Amino acid sequence: MTDEKTPSLLYLWDKRTLYIGPLSEKLSLSQGAATLSLALDKPISFICEGMAKPISCRSLLLPAGFSVTVDTQDAIIVNCNLDALGCDFFALSQRMQKNQSGVAYDLENEERLIKEFINMRVTIKNSQAAFEQLDELLAYDGDAQYKVDPRVVSVVEHIKQTVDDNLSVEDLASLVNLSVPRLVQLFKQQTGVPMRRFRLWHRLYVTAVKMGKGESLTQAAISAGFTDSSHFSHTFRDMLGMSPTAVFAQPNELKIMVPDNAS
């Protein structure tokens, strides 16, 4: 499909992130966003609580905050972290053909998406072109409707805009005229994760963006609100199930693609 010199790609957008490249570690995931994973060259397998044995597949859809172990088996992987508010996850859920213990797998038209992502990896599209193609690949044209609470939208945007301030839950609840318990409940229902975990997830994103703009890992992590690079590495492994070096220090090179307006 590609040779060992083909770089891995990490696209970073405010709405989603997209990684395309090899992953050799077995991943113990509990991510801050719902995730679509596809294996481009051979099957992967997953197992989670309540399952007697792993299931082999080429595509799987993971809810935010869900704990699962994925054996990548050295495959070339597409890992797309979906929008925080659950719109992508809802759309993709309608297209998954099987479900086991909370993990949906076997995407309809799976082969088409695999071919499109293989082409994306080889041609290395710019950030805007890749975002538009991904938008088209994830689009849902069914009749089912997904509701988004505007108060949660406001809180999510405020967290993103104030990454340095670490506003309290009380401040955020006051912003949208909700009690703290009610905001905590609505936020978890909409995003799938508690606010603290979402905040950490967003700081991982901000760190990667700053690295894409030329900062060192330590500089980027501190700028994003982590106490030091060790704090960043611990959070990265806790959520993504692998060390940062597994992604950022690949022998085949990693290209980090950041939109021009990213900060």
SSE topology sketch:
Layout: E1 8-12, E2 17-22, E3 27-29, E4 35-39, E5 44-47, E6 55-57, E7 59-62, E8 68-71, E9 76-81, H1 87-93, E10 96-100, E11 103-107, H2 110-123, H3 127-138, H4 150-161, H5 169-175, H6 180-191, H7 195-212, H8 217-223, H9 229-240, H10 244-248, E12 254-257
Parallel strand pairs: 1-12
Antiparallel strand pairs: 1-2, 2-9, 3-8, 4-7, 4-9, 5-6, 5-8, 7-11, 10-11
Helix pairs in contact: 5-6, 7-8
Structural class: alpha+beta
Could you say how many structural domains there are in total? 2
Overall morphology: globular
The level 1 CATH classification of the largest domain is: Mainly Beta
Uncertain regions spanning at least 5 consecutive residues: none
Number of helices: 10
Provide structural commentary:
- It is a single chain.
- It contains ten helices and twelve strands.
- The model has no long low-confidence stretch (mean pLDDT 89).
- Helices cover 40% and strands 21% of the residues.
- With 263 residues, it is of the alpha+beta class.
- α5 packs across α6 and α7 packs across α8.
- It folds into two domains: 8-138, Jelly Rolls (Sandwich), CATH 2.60.120.10; 150-241, Orthogonal Bundle (Arc Repressor Mutant, subunit A), CATH 1.10.10.60.
- It has an eight-stranded mixed sheet with strand order 10-11-7-4-9-2-1-12, with helices on both faces.
List keywords for this structure.
eight-stranded mixed β-sheet, 2 domains, single chain, 12 strands, Arc Repressor Mutant, subunit A, four-stranded antiparallel β-sheet, alpha+beta, 263 residues, globular, Jelly Rolls
